[in-house]
Amino acid sequence: MNFLIYGLQTWCHHQTVASNLPFISKILEKTVALQLRAHLSSNNIYEHFQSGFRPLRSTETALLKITNDLLLASDSGSLSILILLDLTAGFDTISHNILIHRLQTIGISHTPLSWFSSYLSDRSQFIHIKPHMSNTFTHSAGIPQGSVLGPLLFIIYILPLGSLFHKHNINFHCYADDTQLYISTKPSSSLPPSSLTLCLQEIHSWFSSNFLQLNSSKTEVLLVGTPSTISKSNSFSNSINDFSVLPSPQVKSLVSSSTAHFRSNLILITSPVLLTFISAIYLVSALLSHLIQLLYLFIVFLRLGSIIVIPSCLVCPIKLSKNCSFSKMLQPASSPGPRYPTTSHQFSKTYTGFP
Questions:
Q1: What gap in Å lies between CA 45 and CA 39, rounded to an integer?
Q2: Membrane-spanning regions, if any (predicted)?
Q3: Whole domain around residue 213: which residue ranges?
Q4: Which of 234, 257, 280 is at the close of a domain?
Q5: How far is it, in rounded angstroms, from Cα 346 to Cα 52?
Q6: pLDDT digits over 304-316, tens only?
Q7: Where does a domain end: 232, 257, 282?
Q8: What b-and-e string marks burial along 40-62, b requiring 16 or more CB atoms within 10 Å of the CB?
């Protein structure tokens, strides 16, 4: 019993709760989101290196930007340090007061600001799992996941984060609540660079003051460069959120390995797809051969003009309903004329001769 409880707790810990919002609410949010995006674009408020949740910016733009920068640094003989930061339940810990202040700083005021304040306040939620339902509780923080405005408000919430990276001359790219930092240095220099260490300390302080928490277990560090460049570097570790992170040989997102190629990622993705494709080919070929045999037997039986018992091993395991056109073809015609267009009158007579 304790094992089942532990398993349920582990399962719940790894689940992301998405809000099931009313349809009318999403229509209203979409209208507001269109106006908010127009305001962010016309006033150049978007973080330039922010992909996701905005037009013409996706995982593709983030991947191309970071990979291109790392390959250029590698070609010049530099060693790059890539750090992938991940937040723990970033949408659920957003402070409403801080978010309202962020909206004020980007020019939202008066009636629109009051609308956002009303949108965030007095939200209640309950969890429904089949016949079980939890008690209703009120939200004092966070924005609903699964909403239209939620991702856009999260981008506005973390806008000041970009200034920290620019302050320490750290290259970065954000995608949703994931942040990738990278800096290039000479292989002979001490690792990690002091600017990177100071930047990570300020990031940790900024996250704490804004009620966001880094997920140390999902934070990864990768050294990127040529094999000769990496061999010249010294071993090091980064302290992130009081947690020591060592460089990994490969990471799950973006660049797959220290040589900035995607071979392991491609193998990881294509292997199950290839197996599924091969299984589908065998399945389709088996079904096609079975259907061809059944069609051949059907034509032969029509020509013979008599009923022959079909072996059960040749019958396709599909239940034909009365409304199925194929089952209607097997039924005798009620009129002396042919039910379907035929090229031979003899075929029509043979067909209507079914008892």
A1: 8
A2: 148-165, 266-288, 294-318
A3: 2-257
A4: 257
A5: 67
A6: 544 444 444 444 4
A7: 257
A8: beeeeebbebbbbbbeebeeebb
